[in-house]
Amino acid sequence: MNVERMSYQECIALVKRQWLARLACSDDNIPYVIPVQYSYFDDRLYVFTLPGKKLEIMRRNPNVCLEVDQLKSRHSWSSVVIDSRFTDLSGEASSEEKDRAWALLSKRSDWWQPGALKPGGKSAGDNPNTHIFFALEIIDLSGRKAQG
What we know:
148 residues; alpha+beta; Pnp Oxidase, Chain A; eight-stranded antiparallel beta sheet; two-stranded antiparallel sheet; 3 helices; 10 strands
């Protein structure tokens, strides 16, 4: 198996192809990692969520990290790590970007899952005040790939 660094273009291409990432945030030096569905546009990732732990943490500490990968086999994979900055799109000032996030995410069926489901399969309902979109601005990224 041969492991190589990925170029910036290869990293962005992988991020554009995928839709699932692991989001890492930290509160009081305690990491919290969760899967999120995203859409990419113009060096930003857009995510839908409901109020909860990750949102509370990111509002206190907007510096987050994501990991996006593609596994073809045990010896053929790609992985990109993204340093990013959280922006809450729930305010009126960000309505245009919130509309963009909605439009991008809604291109996939079930785009709102798992962001709208709580454990046990319960939905948060149709209250639009609980629907929160956020953006993650890419600050830096790097990637590795293995072929073999």
